[in-house]
Design a protein that fits this description.
Elongation Factor Tu (Ef-tu), domain 3, 226 residues, Arc Repressor Mutant, subunit A
Length: 226
């Protein structure tokens, strides 16, 4: 991603376009960028074409908001700065939530060869088909956002003749449960997910629900160290 695009995305985020659509004219954006109106308009068009922003022209003007991809670009940039300035800082995040039944997608994705080979090579195991889904409490939702700026084990996306599969990030975690001693597990955050930010998925080489004797509604705590 070129520096001009990242600069433009950062300025849009500072204007509030990460949280909600903002009304923005090319003229006002040119003042923010300290550029010509033509340059500002071109930047908006290019970011829209690249899938970094949503842009809608209404009767009352132009509305702009960052897409998930646009936000991910900024998060990646932030992570690089964190590696530069805080490379020796260890991040520890404790998360608590209730066990819930997922949508069933985890079982499908964890069995795809394009992912399985990476899990084995990067995490050291083939995961049990499926993920353990946790709905976080209010405090943990805020803590979970810290992972967006932490070092992660990257799982790359891939293509098949029929479709494209997105990548994701994995974070080693310790499940704080008496039966979990010695069980390896990772929080996985897919780039493309139907889940909101208050739900996390955990992968492991074992069937966690059975091993830990968990049912929907049971509370579970885990510690993520990166």
């Amino acid at each position: 991603m070129d520096a001009e695009t990242i600069f433009s995305l950062r300025k849009l985020a500072l204007l509030g376009a990460m949280e909600q659509p903002i009304k923005l004219s090319a003229a006002s954006f040119s003042e923010t960028l300290k550029s010509s109106v033509q340059t500002a308009a071109r930047r908006l068009q290019e970011m829209e074409r690249e899938g970094l922003i949503y842009r809608r022209i209404m009767v009352d003007g132009q509305w702009v908001m960052l897409t998930r991809r646009g936000i991910d670009v900024l998060k990646a940039e932030c992570q690089e700065y964190r590696q530069i300035f805080f490379a020796k800082t260890n991040l520890e995040v404790e998360l608590v939530g209730k066990v819930i039944t997922g949508l069933g997608e985890g079982k499908y994705y964890t069995t795809l060869e394009g992912y399985k080979r990476q899990f084995k090579r990067k995490l050291g195991f083939f995961p049990f088909p499926g993920t353990l889904n946790i709905k976080l409490d209010a405090r943990s939702i805020e803590a979970r956002r810290m992972l967006d700026f932490a070092n992660a084990i990257r799982i790359e996306g891939f293509k098949t003749p029929k479709r494209t599969f997105g990548g994701g990030r994995c974070y080693p975690c310790e499940i704080l449960h008496e039966r979990a001693k010695g069980i390896r597990s990772f929080v996985i955050i897919p780039e493309r997910t139907h889940y909101p930010d208050d739900i996390i998925e955990i992968i492991s080489p074992v069937f966690l629900r059975k091993e830990l004797q968990l049912n929907d509604g049971d509370y579970l705590a885990l510690r993520v160290k990166v």
